[in-house]
Amino acid sequence: MKKILFPTDFSDVSNNAFIYALKLAEMIHAEIITLHVYQMLQPKFADFSAYLYEVYEVTELSNFENYRDEVPVLRNIAEKNSLGHIKTSHVLVMGNFIHEIQNLTQEENIDFVVMGTKGATGLKETFLGTVTTKVMDDVKAIVFAIPAHCQYQPIKRILFVTQFKPNDFKAFKKVMELAHLFQAHIDCLYVQQHQHEAKNDFADDWKTIVEKQDVTLHTIVSNDVERIILNFIELNKINTIAMLVYHRNFFEKLFQISLSKKLAFHADVPILAIHE
């Protein structure tokens, strides 16, 4: 059985993302492991060590009580969406958020990490988009990032951002497998930055790969990559973006932070981040 890891801070945004985790689990016949990570309070006075045990006990108790109260909320979300049959287990652990996700992903052979890109303030941990982008970088599973204002809708049209190069084939194959499960159409978009850029010798290979598939290839010439992509999403009613998480590539140089991470802050559609 496939496994989905769902890191949560129990915020409204995380709870909203949980619906996507449930729907994905139903589609791919997966179980869900929820993960809540908390940290020890930082010392604010010199003789902190003398009170360390008491502070540890209070921290453990308060986090356990919060956890105990919030888990039924997730169960209610599942039942409300007629997905109470999805096998779900829960993990509460103290530690570093990214490190614990990495550990659990390896130990449990996680296939997908589903998480919101923003979270609540106040007593609950803030689950910022920067945390999600860190997970995109450091976790090898496919990361399904759900923006704060994204309301669930069936995945019927997927945008795959590519340069039509062989290095993208492996990721594209994963996208095609998901599209088949979702019965979704794929739009492959290459934003060519220079009108006189050298001919892409692999474009014909892509045409062969997608022949007789529910896939459309697009090439648009523009230096404003992000604007073109966001316009394409709106005009074509895209409800999921799939892309590689690039490191030190031309997107990185252009935006200082990779396009997949930047879109996580600006696009109100889910993002499937896939490693090379």
Briefly summarize what is shown.
With 276 residues, the chain is an alpha/beta fold.
Essential attributes:
single chain, 276 residues, alpha/beta, Rossmann fold, ten-stranded mixed β-sheet
Describe the secondary structure blueprint for this structure:
Blueprint: E1 2-7, H1 12-28, E2 30-38, H2 52-80, E3 88-94, H3 97-107, E4 112-116, H4 129-138, E5 142-146, E6 157-161, H5 169-182, E7 185-192, H6 203-209, E8 215-221, H7 225-235, E9 240-244, H8 250-255, H9 259-266, E10 271-274
Parallel strand pairs: 1-2, 1-4, 2-3, 4-5, 6-7, 6-9, 7-8, 9-10
Antiparallel strand pairs: 5-10
Helix pairs in contact: 1-2
Fold and architecture overview:
The protein has 276 residues and is α/β, with parallel strands linked by helices. It has two domains: 2-146, Rossmann fold (3-Layer(aba) Sandwich), CATH 3.40.50; 157-267, HUPs (Rossmann fold, 3-Layer(aba) Sandwich). It is built from nine helices and ten strands. The chain has helices at 12-28, 52-80, 97-107, 129-138, 169-182, 203-209, 225-235, 250-255, 259-266, and strands at 2-7, 30-38, 88-94, 112-116, 142-146, 157-161, 185-192, 215-221, 240-244, 271-274. Strands 3-2-1-4-5-10-9-6-7-8 form a ten-stranded mixed sheet, with helices on both faces. α1 (12-28) links the parallel β1 and β2. α1 crosses α2 (52-80). The chain starts with a strand and ends with a strand. The model is unreliable at 50-56, 119-128 and 247-257 (pLDDT under 50).
